[in-house]
Amino acid sequence: MSSKEFLVFLVLISTYVYCVSELTEETCETLPSEIHITKEEFDELGRLQRTCNGEISVNKCEGSCKSQVQPSVITPTGFLKECYCCRESYLRERIITLTHCYDPDGVRLAAEGENSMDVKLREPSECKCYKCGDFSR
Q1: pTM of the model
Q2: Position 78 in a domain
Q3: pLDDT tens digit string along 20-57?
Q4: Signal peptide position in this chain (predicted)?
Q5: Comparing C-alpha atoms, which of 102, 136, 95 is closest to residue 119?
Q6: First to last CA, the chain
Q7: 136 lies in a domain?
């Protein structure tokens, strides 16, 4: 393949990639989901005191974002890549209560103060497309 044919090939590929990326919609959104959490509590000597767990509802980021690759004479690889990823734009802090607590022998705890555990977590409250690898937001 001559260099002229190769250049034409690159332009065609570039045009195809650009057209496909233009047709692809961004679907990045914040969606509800269910997860199972298990949290263990230890004493000062490192011995297990209790284990608490539960199913909780949390938000997650999911979807796709427009990205493209095009030929470039400026970049060392010969291609300019613009990649975008769906991720959180804002995290909110939440306290959740786990209500299934057990002692180290697996016996369910019923005493007030031992039968539940509060856990702090951070979850996405908003999601959007960001340039991949850009953590400076």
Answers
A1: 0.62
A2: yes
A3: 444 457 899 999 999 999 999 999 999 999 999 999 99
A4: 1-19
A5: 95
A6: 45
A7: no
Residue range 104-114: average pLDDT?
94
Cα-atom radius of gyration of the chain, to the nearest Å? 25
CATH number assigned to the domain comprising residue 17: 2.10.90.10
How far does CA 115 lie from the centroid of its chain?
31
What mean pLDDT value characterizes the chain?
Answer: 84
CA-CA distance, 52 to 48, in Å (whole number)?
Answer: 11
Integer angstrom CA distances of residue 135 from 22, 64, 90, 123: 25, 18, 13, 17
A 10 A CB-CB count for 129 gives 19
Domain that holds residue 89: 3-131
Task: Count Cβ atoms below 10 Å from residue 101 Cβ, excluding itself.
Answer: 21
